[in-house]
Write a structure and sequence with these properties.
The protein has helices spanning 2-20, 32-35, 52-55, 84-96, 133-146; strands at 37-38, 75-76, 82-83, 101-105, 109-114, 117-123, 128-132, 148-149, 152-153, 155-158, 165-171. The chain is of the alpha+beta class. The longest helix is centred in the first third of the chain and has 19 residues, at 2-20.
Length: 172
């Protein structure tokens, strides 16, 4: 009888010790609204009324029929990569810009930068090129879907609606 009580008291003491272990320290949430850097002349996420939740919505899984043509022109490059979470914020930001023009010249033009990830546009075979920012987002989404290795992504594709506007997702 005494040994049962000792065992019970020991077990309860162990449970108390387990409860005394401190919880792991939570990682601070990234403030995407204030950390995202829009391209020149583009509004900030705050000006658009975007929240962190808006910027971190999952990207569409799969390629839409509208973007089917874009699938054949993408190229993966894993020498200069982005974190998928940073790329996701840029995707959602550019998608929300909807019919605002994203314009690039023959030199690289940054449309969005989040953390170590830039979405860069460049006119190819033309002095300048533009497309709706939502179409830039769809072109980049093909890279996000097809050129992902775990939590990193890298490569380029062309904006929907303009085969001369190359969109590159690359680390800074």
């Amino acid at each position: 009888m005494v040994s049962i009580k000792v065992a019970l008291i020991s077990a309860l003491g162990f449970i108390g010790a387990v409860n005394a272990i401190p919880a792991p320290i939570a990682q601070p949430e990234v403030d995407y609204v204030n950390a995202l850097v829009p391209g020149e002349g583009l509004p900030t996420p705050a000006e658009l009324g975007l929240t962190n939740e808006d910027l971190m919505k999952p990207m569409p899984n799969g390629i839409s029929e509208r973007d089917n043509v874009l699938q054949k022109r993408y190229k993966c490059r894993f020498t200069n990569v982005c974190k998928v979470s940073d790329s996701t914020a840029c995707f959602n930001y550019l998608l929300r810009l909807n019919t605002k023009n994203c314009r690039a010249t023959g030199r690289p033009t940054q449309f969005c930068r989040m953390g170590g990830c830039s979405w860069i546009g460049q006119a190819e075979n033309a002095s300048s090129a533009s497309s709706y920012c939502r179409d830039v987002a769809h072109g980049g989404n093909t890279v996000n879907q097809r050129c992902r290795l775990g939590s990193i992504v890298g490569g380029y594709n062309y904006a929907g609606g303009n085969g001369h506007l190359r969109v590159t997702l690359a680390g800074n």
